[in-house]
Amino acid sequence: MSQQEAGWKPYEDGGSIGWMGSQGGTIARDEDLAGQVRLTYEVDDSRSFHAITCSVAGWLLHHRFFDNAADALAAFDAMKPALEKLRTRLTEGGPKSSAEARAGGPLLAAFMARFS
After folding, report:
1. Could you give the dihedral angle defined by the CA atoms of residues 73, 43, 23 and 80, in that order, rounded to the nearest 10 degrees?
2. Do 54 and 28 form a contact (C-beta atoms < 8 A)?
3. Whose CA is closest to 64, among 87, 82, 90?
4. pLDDT digit string (tens) for 54-107?
């Protein structure tokens, strides 16, 4: 499935590319899915720093760190289908009840264990 078919689009039409990211690197890739999921890749080659930040609105903010671009970019692409699936199993915007929060916990834990 292509990026467009899956609904992934450049975050803010690519306006974030080149800016400093939340982890102190330069944003090199930044994509959004339906305004609910975001995946950002930051790089700073001067310190062999590569970071991926993923978020699911109201549910998750997760960072991963790598020492090379190849591994980071492979992880970025591998996380997309898992984030798409996770998004379909969680209430949009975050839990609306304690029961929803409890149901989401194991899903989030499994995602983070897989992508740690």
Report:
1. -20
2. no
3. 82
4. 999 999 999 999 999 999 999 999 999 999 999 999 999 999 999 999 999 999
